[in-house]
């Protein structure tokens, strides 16, 4: 079976296409991709992974055509400035009892 392992950086996207045996896990695919060697900042104890944007566990079996994605953890200050605005809007108004 053929799968793709993806790790996206701000400036580029790394795509590794691999042929695996049926019954292989996401961890095996990531290790065979060599992304962990090329990008030592990836820590599978911290970084989440997924298949087509759905978070999965490392021991999940992958299937032909799957796209395994390694997600980066973003520092809070790099998150969307709109998140603060949403929080302000979502804050309930105080009821003064009148």
Architecture (CATH level 2) name = Roll
The side-by-side strand order for the widest beta sheet comes to 2-1-5-3-4
Give the number of helices. Answer: 3
The CATH superfamily is: Beta-grasp domain
Provide key terms for this protein:
about 100 residues; alpha+beta; Ubiquitin-like (UB roll); 3 helices; about 25% strand
Topology at a glance:
Layout: E1 2-8, E2 13-19, H1 26-33, H2 35-38, E3 49-51, E4 54-56, E5 67-70, H3 82-90
Parallel strand pairs: 1-5
Antiparallel strand pairs: 1-2, 3-4, 3-5
Concise synopsis of the structure shown:
With 98 residues, the chain is α+β, with helices and mostly antiparallel strands.
Give a description of the structure:
The chain is an alpha+beta fold and 98 residues long. It has a single domain, classed as Beta-grasp domain (Ubiquitin-like (UB roll)), CATH 3.10.20.30. Helix content is 21%, strand content 24%. It contains three helices and five strands. It has helices spanning 26-33, 35-38, 82-90, and strands at residues 2-8, 13-19, 49-51, 54-56, 67-70. The protein has a five-stranded mixed beta sheet with strand order 2-1-5-3-4, with helices on one face. Strand 3 and strand 4 (54-56) form a beta hairpin. The longest helix has 9 residues, at 82-90. It is globular, with a radius of gyration of 19 Å. The termini are far apart. 13% of the residues are buried. The model has no long low-confidence stretch (mean pLDDT 84).
